[in-house]
Design brief:
mainly alpha, 2 strands, 80% helix, globular
Length: 304
């Protein structure tokens, strides 16, 4: 069972990153300010990460030009989905946003079906429908007298998850014949490159970035860097767990991230409300718990 605890550490770390993201959005993207500054912080960190990888990994330039271009493109796709993800966090609780990421395997199956000629099993179709039922439930607003579906964050996250799925397919396609760190180097190069383009050609983002840098640049940089390190550690733990156990079991454990995140946000709301606040009323919390439970069941059907 050693693999289980290693695999479980990854969604725990990623949930922690999600809470950091929510804190940064609430702290620095309020009022007239948007999340453009955070987007630039998150993307420009790619410059430093790529430099760090280049210093310690040999042969980062010894890959085909097409592979470099594709990996740089994944960096641009990453910025695109991060923008949509941060937009969602501006208008929705993190515990209702992150569960949408469980739809990424579904979009992966769809792309595989239409682009690669893969077939979908009955089990995969049923599991996907159950997961979709869960994310649809968690996107319903139960706080008012009338039930309303929250279309805007749902639309943002659908597009974001599609972009994540496309980015993942490209990264895996290239990395099959290359080293993980070499591929990561060029992905972060792309992240930094497109971040620089945003800084130069999107005045609103540049102004928000400068204002954010003036108000708490050092703290934001440290927190973003720490989040990036945690994310990388989570990815490495997942890859290591895959070596010890079937990949489907590792992915299944990863699907518990929304439940872990919900527990962490409730804990933080109780003891650290200055970091994150979750609506703990029964009419809001109970449907969210049910929705997360449905998504986990769907993931079990999907991956087993």
């Amino acid at each position: 069972m050693q693999w289980f605890f290693i695999a479980l550490s990854a969604p725990f770390l990623w949930a922690l990153v999600n809470i950091f993201d929510q804190y940064l959005v609430e702290r620095y993207s309020t009022g007239t300010r948007g999340s453009g500054g955070l987007v630039l912080f998150s993307s420009l960190i790619g410059v430093f990460v790529s430099i760090a990888i280049g210093l310690f990994v040999d042969g980062v330039f010894n890959i085909p030009l097409l592979d470099k271009a594709l990996l740089i493109l994944t960096g641009g796709l990453t910025i695109a989905w991060v923008i949509l993800y941060l937009f969602s966090l501006e208008i929705e609780d993190v515990s209702a946003v992150v569960p949408w990421f469980l739809t990424i395997p579904i979009f992966g199956y769809v792309f595989g079906y239409f682009l690669l000629g893969e077939t979908l099993t009955t089990q995969q179709i049923i599991g996907s429908l159950i997961v979709l039922l869960g994310v649809l439930l968690i996107s319903i607003d139960f706080s008012g007298e009338k039930r309303q579906f929250k279309w805007i964050p749902a639309l943002y996250m659908i597009v974001a998850c599609v972009l994540v799925a496309i980015s993942g397919l490209i990264f895996k396609y290239v990395t099959i014949g290359e080293d993980f760190w070499v591929s990561s180097f060029w992905e972060y190069v792309g992240l930094g490159f497109f971040g620089i383009l945003l800084y130069l050609f999107v005045p609103k983002y540049r102004e928000e970035f400068m204002l954010m840098n003036h108000e708490g640049g050092k703290n934001i940089f440290i927190l973003n860097a720490f989040s990036e390190i945690i994310t990388i550690v989570g990815n490495l733990l997942t890859n290591y767990a895959i070596l010890l156990a079937p990949i489907t079991m590792v992915y299944l454990v990863g699907s518990f991230q929304p439940a872990i995140l919900l527990f962490m946000t409730l804990f933080a709301t109780k003891f650290f409300p200055q970091i994150v606040k979750e609506d703990m009323s029964k009419r809001v919390l109970l449907p969210k718990i049910v929705a997360v439970g449905i998504m986990i069941i769907g993931s079990i059907v999907l991956f087993l």
